[in-house]
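Re-run with default settings, no changes from the original entry. Doing this only to confirm the output is reproducible before filing.
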Amino acid sequence: MLLNRGIGLLIARLLLGLIFFFQGYGKVFTWGVDEVYNSFFVSYNEKLPEFLTVFAAYFTSYVELIGGALLIIGFKRDWTLYALGLVLLIVSFGHGVMEPIWNLEHVMYRAILLIAILLLPKDWDIFSLAHLLLKKKSAKKYLSL
């Protein structure tokens, strides 16, 4: 059962990490954040101040890229999930300001995975860099006694 918990959490974490990482990768390296801003965020300036839309374009792009990578390797899980949750809130707010949110496919699956991972105990996350570092630290502490 312990192995199933670890594998289940690994799959959820990797899936969410890959989704965010490749979205951020596309925004940062494929299109460029300036192009993403000009293509998608400029229209938000009708209802929101420009500094907010510029901030949102850069913040969401880089947090998706870096946060996705951190989830994939399993490091700083909770802080990463907080930042990615903030991205989902920003995206939902932005979409909601522009028009009613009838289509939840951009947010809902990510939100469900994010909240599930956040609620699952960290000690189940045995296939992560954080777990490996904790084991190494514990081993050193034990050997030094």
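The mean pLDDT is 92. The radius of gyration is 18 Å.
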